[in-house]
Specification:
The complex is a heterodimer of chains A (329) and B (345).
Chain A (H helix, E strand, L loop, with lengths): L22 E10 L8 H7 L9 E3 L5 E3 L3 E8 L9 E13 L3 E12 L8 H6 L3 E5 L4 H9 L10 H13 L15 E9 L6 E6 L5 E8 L4 H34 L5 H11 L11 H14 L1 H21 L6
Helix pairs in contact in A: 5-6, 5-8, 6-8
Chain B lengths: L21 E12 L8 H25 L5 E8 L13 H15 L5 E4 L1 H4 L1 E2 L9 E2 L1 H7 L21 E3 L1 E2 L17 E2 L10 E3 L1 E4 L6 E4 L1 H12 L4 E2 L2 E2 L22 E3 L8 E9 L4 H12 L5 H12 L15 E5 L10
Parallel strand pairs in B: 1-2, 1-15, 2-3, 15-16
Antiparallel strand pairs in B: 3-14, 4-5, 6-9, 7-8, 10-11, 12-13
Classes of the chains: A alpha+beta (329), B alpha/beta (345).
Chain lengths: 329, 345
């Protein structure tokens, strides 16, 4: 991908000593910030200050996106390998939180897998120099490692990025600056992804909706330098998928039920129109490659068109309520 | 139609990282408690007299390696963090500065910077600084610690960093239930070579007598902060911290230690405070805390931009300096002995 990808300098994906990752894993959780009102820019920055003295990243346009400093978790565990093979991963996993427009909270854990630089575990500072990288001992087949990770159960038997991304969400939601209520009851969605990385690969993505609710699995390819952009793509996909699901499966059906039972659905309809709809902002502005990847995804899924249809439905329901107000409040 | 290239960025996306000026060598010529000045210059005179030959030797070596213009600065640390005597009985900063300057003259060298230990816990840029121009450095360093992963750790459990201890290995599992444990199991150093040297470091304790329990940082952690300041590796959200302050000709030093900047520059033409290499010449009782400080630094995640900035600057020197990846590789210590000459009068 081109070097204009905005997250590039935040996450060093390539080892300083030339070892290049052959895979990347991650998990993204998306939910509402547990606060009744939208957070102000300064409140968002304060909430994302998870490490004192480390800079919080903030971008105001096209939507306000505030990202916490990366948190570092040490791991030394066996990998969950599908079919045959064994592997041990030693290093660190990175995780960060993102608040979008003071409303949506995401917790992301991610790690790059490289070949081991030694047959034994090395001194800790070696792994701290390559944050977000695990070295894999035992040379298992990469396809088996990726399949094993994507199919790993809960609780995880291999690398537990689910717990790490869950924990960062909990850390943020427990902040005493929040009032711990939400204007809308909506679920947490999960996107688990794995990327196969090789020097001359072009970015591609294969998305599968799981049989479990609010869960997607993405298989990606790309060059090792693309990893930061692939992480961002998965975060953006997770955000937009959460918006679509929340509007389609929560707001519209509830409003329809409310209207059928003569209850007032206006609050949640207006919440959707005022707070959620403005967040639909595909990340095509980030780089030409991100634009190509996103547009290819759109041409398969028609997400934007589906979302627009839901927004039109919300406006219809709002108008219906105006014409014939409910009797029960 | 031709493609038009427009770029758009926001400066708050990735705040810039300040650079700090660097010498080739920073020598800590001593470390004393405020109480040590109660007897005037006796203790400091002995300390500086012991340090003098090592300072000279270190200077020779640096000039030989990096040329006649190699920059060397000297500093002295006063511990005002845990005062045992009431504030009124403490010597005033101006008195200590006079004693230190005179003692250094006597020993045949100059002390460029006077630092105070409480200024390592919370950095003050100016005299009489308030919360606006302070940085909680001890909190920042504690927040950069990444605990070493135990074998089997896959991320399911939260790190135990909240407990205020850092070890270089796996603690003895029987320790908590020693009374009824069937057999004792030893602790184990991670990455040991046959035998362990297991170290468990208390980073802070909580003063529970206060309504809001405040962290009382250990000497080990504050020593780590002090080394990192001298290595020029600390930043607060990208900003340089605890920049040395030089009092102007008409400016008087404050009366209270807490009103003094973290680092006061004593000599007008001093080489920069921070350096590529740091040497501490200390009495032997600091050995354990200094070892602990190095273990803490080995468990920190550094901002890659700061490390790169320092390494690049070193390489761009007239006589290029190659720094090791590992910051602790830039630190050396000299603990002098307790042997005295007996004077037969």
């Amino acid at each position: 991908m081109s070097r204009t990808t905005t997250d590039r300098d935040r996450i060093p994906a390539v080892h300083g000593d030339g070892t290049r990752p052959w895979s990347g894993f991650g998990e993204v959780r998306t939910c509402l910030v547990q606060n009744l009102g939208a957070l102000s820019p300064s409140a968002s920055v304060a909430l994302m200050q998870l490490t004192p003295g480390s800079p919080v990243s903030k971008v105001d346009r096209p939507v306000r996106r505030v990202v916490s400093p990366e948190q570092v978790t040490g791991v030394d565990c066996r990998l969950q390998v599908a079919r045959e093979g064994r592997g041990r991963a030693i290093g660190t996993v990175l995780s960060h939180a993102v608040v979008t427009n003071g409303r949506i909270l995401q917790g992301t854990a991610h790690v790059a897998l490289t070949e081991a630089t030694s047959k034994e575990r090395r001194e800790w500072r070696h792994y701290l120099r390559h944050q977000g990288v695990v070295e894999v001992l035992g040379a298992p087949n990469p396809h088996n490692v990726i399949d094993g990770y994507l199919a790993d159960s809960s609780p995880a038997r291999g690398l537990d990025l689910a717990s790490i991304s869950d924990r960062i969400i909990d850390d943020v939601q427990q902040s005493d600056t929040l009032n711990h209520t939400t204007a809308l009851r909506a679920g947490t969605s999960v996107v688990r992804w794995a990327a196969t990385l090789s020097a001359d690969a072009r970015p591609t993505a294969g998305i599968a909706k799981s049989e479990l609710p609010n869960r997607h699995v993405i298989r990606l390819t790309g060059a090792p330098e693309d990893l930061p952009a692939l992480i961002r793509f998965c975060e953006e996909f997770a955000l937009h998928e959460w918006l679509l699901t929340t509007v389609q499966d929560v707001i519209v059906p509830r409003a329809e039920t409310d209207i059928a039972r003569d209850r007032d659905p206006l609050d949640s309809l207006l919440f959707a129109l005022n707070e959620l709809v403005p967040l639909w902002m595909p990340p095509t502005h980030l780089s030409p490659d991100m634009k190509a990847l996103w547009e290819a995804m759109e041409s398969r899924t028609h997400y934007t068109r589906l979302f627009e249809r839901q927004v039109a439905r919300i406006r219809d329901l709002r108008d219906q309520v105006k014409i014939r107000p409910p009797r029960r409040f | 139609m031709t493609a038009v290239d427009v770029s758009y960025d926001e400066v708050t996306r990735s705040p810039k990282v300040d650079a700090v000026p660097l010498s080739h060598l920073s020598v800590e010529t001593g470390h004393l408690y405020l109480d040590d000045f109660a007897e005037g210059d006796r203790k400091i005179a002995r300390q500086l007299e012991q340090a003098a030959p090592w300072l000279e030797a270190a200077g020779k070596r640096i000039h030989k390696r990096f040329g006649r213009n190699a920059r060397i600065s000297t500093c002295f640390l006063v511990d005002d963090y845990t005062p045992s005597s009431p504030t009124l009985d403490q010597p005033k900063p101006s008195e200590v500065v006079d004693i230190v300057t005179a003692a250094a003259d006597q020993a045949g060298f100059r002390i460029d910077y006077l630092a105070r230990e409480a200024g390592c816990a919370i950095a003050c840029e100016r005299p009489y600084s308030g919360p606006r121009d302070q940085s909680a450095l001890a909190d920042i360093v504690a927040g950069l610690i990444v605990e070493e992963a135990a074998v089997g750790a896959n991320g399911s459990r939260p790190p135990t960093a909240q407990t205020g201890w850092l070890s270089n290995g796996a603690r003895s599992p029987a320790a908590a239930v020693a009374m009824d444990a069937p057999g004792w199991e030893p602790p184990e150093e991670f990455g040991k070579d046959k035998h362990s040297v297991f170290v468990d470091i208390e980073l802070w304790s909580l003063d529970n007598s206060m309504p809001q329990a405040e962290r009382q940082y250990s000497c080990s952690l504050l020593s780590a902060v002090w080394l990192l300041l001298r290595l020029g590796l600390l930043r607060d959200a990208g900003r340089a911290v605890a920049k040395p302050y030089r009092f102007g000709p008409g400016e008087t030093l404050p009366d209270l230690w807490s009103q003094l900047p973290s680092i006061t520059q004593l000599t007008p033409d001093a080489a920069p405070f921070a350096a590529y290499q740091v040497l501490s010449v200390l009495p032997p009782h600091f050995r354990a805390a200094e070892h602990a400080a190095e273990i803490i630094i080995d468990h920190l995640r550094f901002d890659g931009a700061v490390l790169k900035q320092t390494a690049d600057r070193a390489r761009d020197e007239t006589n290029p300096v190659t720094l090791p990846d590992n910051p602790v590789g830039r630190v050396s210590h000299l603990f002098f002995d307790d042997v005295h000459v007996t004077h037969n009068d």
